[in-house]
Amino acid sequence: MCDLKFNEFAPTVIVLSPIGQNLHFAAPTYCGYANSGFKAIRSNIPKYGDRYLYISSAKKLTKSQPQPIFSLVQSFSLQKAGNDITECEDAWDYAEHDAMFVIAMSDGATESSFAKEWASEMVTTFVKDQSAFSHETRWLSDLQTRWQSWLSEQKLPWFAKRKAQQGAYATFLSLQVRADLSWQAIAVGDSCLFVVRDRCLQQSFPVQHSNEFGNSPNLVGTSSNLRKGSILKVLGKARGGDRFYLATDAIACWIMKQLEANQNPWVKLEQLDVSDKFAAWINELRDRREIVNDDTTLLCLEINYPEIQATTL
After folding, report:
1. Can you identify the CATH homologous superfamily of domain 69-304?
2. Structure pTM?
3. How confident is the model at residue 112 (pLDDT cuts 50, 70, 90)?
């Protein structure tokens, strides 16, 4: 097959002269048939381009920009065996701000007074404050001031007041995920974050091994300043389908031991779809002494994208 060149077939273009003048012929162009046709006789007559001559009746389709969907697929708490659920000193809360999801967890220290109330106040205050991650201690200082004011108004027996003045204490863990799936977490103590992708652990924070769990974790108090280095922070980037597990120390230690034994705990955790299943399973672990008898909380945040659909204009 031969190669055709447009300029070999360039036509002679007829140009209409104004009335009263002779016709003349323009020289062939090198643009082939694209320039063939009549020019306007008057300059005020509009010239129509191809886009107006060939208007497609098909509707244009555009793809809308997908936004991630944050789903709290698990939120379970179980009190110590022998206690009522109202005595559980674990607390958690979450909030959705513009293009941002924040969740926080706290485990109150039983030995201190009002540990449950302090844990609850911390998580609620933190998730509501959109600047908390940028000012990691300012929100705490303000909360401690309000706490002391609240405590002074309580009508307590002298011995209860003396113990309360020693302060309430709790661990603290919070996770923030943005719409671009960048995330950050801060922690004080041994409540743990596990980032899981395709049932494989990507990161654990702040604890790395089961032998790091003990009876004296770092704690956040109602009156004392945090010890230097006790606030830990980590950053990361998630993908659609990732899961973030937040766990208090009892269940977090079990997860660590499973990983160290080359077991996959995520398969079992995914099966816990209702509170009754979670409670029955935790009690079985307690009976087999695979987990300590302690308040136990497990949260799971899953990130997904909606199906991308074409939008008709």
Report:
1. PPM-type phosphatase domain (3.60.40.10)
2. 0.76
3. confident
